Amino acid sequence: MYHLPAILTPTGEEEILLNNGVVRLPKATPQFSSWSGPILFDRYGGKAVLDFHGEALFAELVILRLFEAEGWSGVWVDSYRRCFRRNPLEKVEVPKIRLRVFEQLREAVGARGGCFDVFMWREDTMLFAEAKHNGRDKFRPTQIRWLEAALQIGIPIKSFLVVEWSLNNKPNQSSSINE
Q1: Fewest 10 Å CB contacts: which of 161, 169, 172, 173?
Q2: Is 179 domain-assigned?
């Protein structure tokens, strides 16, 4: 596995049944803190808002910030609004060399949906992270099709990370973020 933020070091595996068998993706299980202040952006129908060093963010953006602190670049793949983001309010562009991966995957899948939540890169390495709220989220068929297509076009299994996060129930603290 690549150099990851300590809090996102895999502690287990997520088994996913594909058409041609089971794959095991590395899985991290961090705890995050819930945001307790005002929320000044759309919550996409009720997404959890987390506190990351005093910044209100969705889990996908907390994951991105953790990787950025380790020297990675990346984006939240906002599939709902069909754009890329680095914060809840503004759309951003992905460098063309990185965007090619998405175009190739979209073509292989034959659809737009299903991409993992966070797309990151560092030098010649790329990584896709899927945020799952523990006990509330599960892999959807579109995500499984997307994963199958990614593996078929040669993206290695080590380029995927499942982040099954939970709340630590301590406002403004995270056992992993603030240590």
Answers
A1: 169
A2: no
